[in-house]
Amino acid sequence: MTKLYNKNSEIEKRRRLRQNITKAEKIIWDKIRDRQLENCKFRRQYSVDKFVIDFYSSELKLAIEYNYFAAT
């Protein structure tokens, strides 16, 4: 079975994205981290296949993707 989630090959990409967080992502992260939203754990820069999702909660099965280019 192929592993689709948080592939080792995407580690550096996810790390780089976490280190270069945008202002909007920081605002969102400050509101959802540490189980502040519905007492659910969110992860930053969670990868699924070749895509990296900005925020993901497995408990809610909710992915949040902020598109900087669409917002500008």
TrEMBL record:
<dbReference type="InterPro" id="IPR047216">
    <property type="entry name" value="Endonuclease_DUF559_bact"/>
</dbReference>
<dbReference type="Pfam" id="PF04480">
    <property type="entry name" value="DUF559"/>
</dbReference>
<dbReference type="GO" id="GO:0004519">
    <property type="term" value="F:endonuclease activity"/>
</dbReference>
<feature type="domain" description="DUF559">
    <location>
        <begin position="12"/>
        <end position="66"/>
    </location>
</feature>
<dbReference type="InterPro" id="IPR007569">
    <property type="entry name" value="DUF559"/>
</dbReference>
<keyword id="KW-0255">Endonuclease</keyword>
<protein>
    <submittedName>
        <fullName>Endonuclease domain-containing protein</fullName>
    </submittedName>
</protein>
<keyword id="KW-0540">Nuclease</keyword>
<keyword id="KW-0378">Hydrolase</keyword>
